[in-house]
Amino acid sequence: MHIKVLGAGAGGGLPQWNCGCRNCADARSGRLPAMSQSSLAVSVDGQGWAVLNASPDIRQQFAVTPQLAPTGLRDSPLRAVVLTNGDIDHVAGLLTLREKTRFTVFATSQTLDILDANAVFAVLDPALVEKSRIALDSPFAPLDGLEVTAFAVPGKVALYLEGDEVDTNAMGEQTVGLRLSADGHTVYYIPGCAKVTDDLLARLADADLVLFDGTVWRNDEMPSTGTGAKTGARMGHVAMDGPDGSIARLAGLTCRKVFVHINNTNPALQPDGPERAALSAAGWQIAADGMEITP
Ligand code: MLT
Ligand code: MN
Ligand code: ZN
């Protein structure tokens, strides 16, 4: 299985357009590598590729990824897009993929219903772009030789669908993780997860590689830095640090562990900071745009 990180960032990317935090300033000055928004590409044979989440940066992500360059006058190696939720950073890129090329979008009914309810997504010509409704815990094959299973993880509905009351730990079709299996290797891709439950821990036992929600280091990171009012929990993202954080909860996993969907405010982006040192000591890596992983 070939995995390529197209975008290591969370919604907004690094630098985020309206943010003057230290990380964003460092990315503007070139002291930190920029990150585009949340997406992975996966292939079994190196020829056909599935993209997991279609970010608003997908045009540039394709432009800098040789594996995704057209193979003919109007032939793309893209075969499928798999969505883990309806968040803007995961679906807006579908609008860029509108130019008469055949591929299949795989997502839960709840997520596909969001696309169907928004007329702008009708630019994906239904004669060419099939929408495949995936059921939780039922394997499907977006590529020959790649078995994918979506499973519920704690999360909330997309920001633009929030009502007055938001259940940030809801379990269902609105936020899923993906188990990928090919050539005897098992990879989990979980870019959004509000809580590491015992069920999730048990599920990850067969992992060779886990790509996990690295949005914030601390739950109160945005309020405490003045960059926003919301906690990680309120945004549907478990923090890396703390007794219930992902580092502590996933400490028993001895496989390769990589954080993805990293918010621009996350202090672990600083290579020489104490947060990065703690993360590395705990056996984790931070993803970067263009990172290639062969599990
Ligand atoms: C998230 O991951 O929390 C969302 O991408 C937020 C957003 O839509 O801006
Ligand atoms: Mn996001
Ligand atoms: Zn910032």
TrEMBL record:
Q: Does the keyword Glycosyltransferase apply?
A: no
Q: Which domain of life is it from?
A: Bacteria
Entry keywords, A to Z: PQQ biosynthesis, Transport
The UniProt entry's sequence similarity note says: Belongs to the PqqB family.
Source species, please? Meridianimarinicoccus roseus
Tell me the Gene Ontology biological-process terms attached to this UniProt entry.
pyrroloquinoline quinone biosynthetic process
Keyword Transport assigned: yes
Record-annotated Metallo-beta-lactamase domain positions: 49-262
Q: What does this protein do?
A: May be involved in the transport of PQQ or its precursor to the periplasm.
Q: PANTHER family recorded for this chain? A: COENZYME PQQ SYNTHESIS PROTEIN B (PTHR42663:SF7), HYDROLASE C777.06C-RELATED-RELATED (PTHR42663)
* InterPro entries registered for this protein in UniProt: Metallo-B-lactamas, PQQ_synth_PqqB, RibonucZ/Hydroxyglut_hydro
Q: By what name is this protein known?
A: Coenzyme PQQ synthesis protein B
Q: In which pathway does it act?
A: Cofactor biosynthesis; pyrroloquinoline quinone biosynthesis
